[in-house]
TrEMBL record:
<dbReference type="InterPro" id="IPR018379">
    <property type="entry name" value="BEN_domain"/>
</dbReference>
<protein>
    <recommendedName>
        <fullName>BEN domain-containing protein</fullName>
    </recommendedName>
</protein>
<feature type="region of interest" description="Disordered">
    <location>
        <begin position="1"/>
        <end position="23"/>
    </location>
</feature>
<dbReference type="Pfam" id="PF10523">
    <property type="entry name" value="BEN"/>
</dbReference>
<dbReference type="GO" id="GO:0003677">
    <property type="term" value="F:DNA binding"/>
</dbReference>
<feature type="domain" description="BEN">
    <location>
        <begin position="42"/>
        <end position="94"/>
    </location>
</feature>
<feature type="compositionally biased region" description="Basic and acidic residues">
    <location>
        <begin position="11"/>
        <end position="23"/>
    </location>
</feature>
Length: 109
């Protein structure tokens, strides 16, 4: 899917390598710079399919089968860079990244 233009139901389009689309930025405008940076990094490093179908670590769940995990190297790279840039603990950044993934999944369903 990489390199292809993605179309949305409302008619907006996005190049996956460009980060958040203008439509997505309008939805995220109330978030902090840290959360915006996480969302943009996720949109650049992971494919549209990965953002919609994967979970953070692919752990087992109590309801249904687990989702596949995001690639560990890219996931850890985003967490490390954001933690250093914003001087935050890794656990806090991972929690915010998990929330971003949930939010992106709901936006693109």
């Amino acid at each position: 899917m990489s390199g292809q233009i993605v179309s949305y139901r409302d008619g907006g389009t996005k190049d996956p390598k460009a980060g958040l689309s203008r439509r997505d930025r309008d939805v995220w405008h109330h978030e902090t710079r840290e959360v915006m940076a996480i969302a943009q990094a996720m949109c650049r490093l992971f494919t549209f399919h990965q953002l919609v179908t994967c979970s953070m670590k692919g752990a087992t769940t109590t309801t249904g089968s687990p989702r596949p995990s995001l690639p560990a190297a890219e996931r850890n790279a985003i967490i490390d860079v954001i933690a250093k840039t914003f001087d935050k603990p890794l656990v806090d950044v991972e929690e915010k990244m998990r929330g971003c993934l949930r939010h992106l999944r709901l936006m693109h369903k």
